[in-house]
């Protein structure tokens, strides 16, 4: 059973425009084409897995050029296993750092949410002046101290 580009778009969440762009950039060279004048792409179910992988690599921050290199390595076969593994190792390290950075940001946002909830309940931000650490939820203490160390900013 073959799938149309519209079927693939619907199943992958990518637009037909994006799929055509990926094809133009050489990311879908593995897809069979019809023998008619138009050379219509004839997607197979098995092509979807690779398209999902391309989508994942794009979401992971790889450029089209980097994804094209990966596709080329994959098409080259087993001789490029080490290069593909190294590419995933580098991307994994970069994503782990991004996740750590996002977690630190979320910690600050959660702390400030708590800060302003307490201030709203008390009717003033002054409620935090001189508040002992014991009254600050443990999960926010480190964030508060990190923020306080940044310039002695009381309420940013």
Automatic annotation (TrEMBL):
Gene3D superfamilies: 1.10.1660.10. GO terms for molecular function: DNA binding; DNA-binding transcription factor activity. This is MerR family transcriptional regulator. CDD domains: HTH_YyaN. InterPro entries: DNA-bd_dom_put_sf, MerR-type_HTH_dom, MerR_fam. It holds the Pfam family MerR_1. The keyword Nucleus does not apply. Keywords: DNA-binding. Residues 2-73 form the HTH merR-type domain. The keyword DNA-binding applies.
């Amino acid at each position: 059973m073959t799938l149309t580009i519209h079927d693939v778009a619907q199943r992958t969440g990518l637009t037909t425009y994006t799929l055509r762009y990926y094809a133009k950039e050489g990311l879908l060279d593995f897809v069979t084409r019809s023998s008619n004048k138009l050379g219509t792409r004839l997607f197979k179910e098995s092509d979807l897995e690779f398209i999902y992988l391309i989508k994942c690599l794009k979401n992971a921050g790889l450029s089209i050029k980097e994804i094209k290199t990966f596709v080329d390595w994959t098409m080259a076969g087993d001789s490029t296993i080490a290069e593909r593994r190294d590419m995933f190792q580098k991307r994994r390290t970069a994503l782990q750092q991004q996740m750590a950075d996002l977690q630190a940001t979320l910690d600050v946002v959660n702390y400030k949410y708590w800060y302003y909830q307490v201030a709203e309940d008390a009717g003033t931000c002054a409620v935090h002046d001189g508040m002992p650490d014991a009254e600050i939820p443990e999960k926010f203490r480190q964030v508060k101290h990190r923020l306080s160390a940044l310039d002695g900013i009381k309420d940013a």
